[in-house]
Design brief:
Two copies of one chain form a homodimer. Chain A is an alpha+beta fold. The first copy, chain A, folds into two domains: 13-86, Arc Repressor Mutant, subunit A (Orthogonal Bundle), CATH 1.10.10; 91-156, no CATH class. Chain A is built from six helices and six strands; from the N terminus they run ααααββααββββ. Chain A has helices spanning 13-21, 24-34, 40-47, 51-63, 86-89, 92-105, and strands at residues 67-74, 77-84, 116-119, 124-126, 144-148, 153-156. In chain A, the strands form two sheets. In chain A, strands 4-3-5-6 form a four-stranded antiparallel β-sheet, with no helix packed on it. A two-stranded antiparallel ribbon of chain A has the order 1-2. In chain A, a hairpin with a 4-residue loop joins strand 5 and strand 6 (153-156). In chain A, helix 2 packs across helix 3. The longest helix of chain A is centred in the middle third of the chain and has 14 residues, at 92-105. Chain A is globular, with a radius of gyration of 16 Å. The interface between A and B is large, with 57 and 57 residues. Chain A binds a DNA duplex (30 and 30 nucleotides) through helix 3, helix 4 and strand 2.
Chain lengths: 164, 164
DNA sequence: CGACATACTCTCTTCAAGCAAGTGAGGTGA
DNA sequence: TCACCTCACTTGCTTGAAGAGAGTATGTCG
């Protein structure tokens, strides 16, 4: 990932990971895609990123193998869409870890509320990010919802699409 | 964290977390501190960051409450040192998640090897990042070692110091 | 006193972010 | 058919941070 220094050859996995993940937009884009918002304008409008930066990040994410670009038909025309690959879907535990950390250690703004990670496969809230704290199974995007009380919404995530 | 846009008032915890963690240096600095490398020059030399950037990041991390700056005497003089706070030590699951993701989804460079997370409290390797996959206990820095075969070293982490 | 170490700060150049505007391919309405 | 729209970008401009290197303030040692 040649945004700044190239750390892809580092021996320490933390550093290799940060080569890709050490950018504030990457995880936000992946979060949107895992929420099923797969089109350029959907992602742009939901996270407030500029066109230029989103365009570059999407290209990088496809190069790095976290997203794949697909065309699909809707509204009588062809749209570009970005869907998670296995590597992209596997970012879920990282997002969960960030979320759990932030809930514990950043100030909750006015109007905020606890976001619960719901493991739909067993029906319970998980308090850990990689394996469900209730049933012990790995948390896969397609089995997880994020309960966001400030939006009065429980949003089901989407994983790697079955057909490509 | 006013490096770029300020996301500290965002309702979504992922975004609030990325306000602090969405920078490649932050996690690397915290990793060094959790390895007991607490002085300016130790951190600088082990991660290869410029003086100016390290200085700014350390100030930010103290402001954000992830590090605390302490003076200690060694070599007959007073040194500045940075030690993790509770919020800093709680980054360990995030680091583990990044590391596990990177081991699975980035190319292992020549000379690299699997880095095992050892839960010294039970003596086993954990394959998950927040609770030990072997015994189920939360992974706290003071109970964890990272086994780095490429350095032929098993490095014990350090948590929040008992005295401040 | 001068040499040295530590923990920074300052200066300079390069490059990305953020904002705004433009572009081109495809589709739509009159 | 031709102006107009939407989508998914690209281009240009300005500001500001990164990275590299040199300088500086404080304290210690001989």
């Amino acid at each position: 990932m040649p945004l700044r220094s190239d750390w892809s050859e580092e021996l320490c996995p933390v550093r290799r990971g940060l080569d890709v993940l050490g950018d504030p937009w990457i995880m936000l884009i992946m979060r949107e895609v895992l929420h099923g918002r797969s089109r350029f304008e959907q992602i742009r409008d939901s996270i407030g990123i500029s066109d230029a930066v989103l365009s570059r990040r999407l290209r990088l994410l496809v190069e790095e193998g976290l997203l794949s670009k697909v065309d699909y038909r809707a509204d009588r025309r062809t749209h570009a869409a970005y869907v998670a690959t296995e590597a992209g879907a596997d970012l879920l535990p990282v997002m969960h870890a960030v979320s759990i950390w932030a809930e514990k250690h950043t100030a909750m703004p006015a109007g905020g509320a606890h976001m619960a990670i719901i493991h739909e496969a067993c029906g319970n809230e998980s308090t850990t990010g990689d394996a469900c704290s209730a049933c012990g199974e790995d948390l896969r995007p397609e089995d997880v919802s994020w309960d966001k009380p400030w939006k009065s919404a429980r949003e089901r995530l989407v994983g790697v699409p079955a057909v490509r």
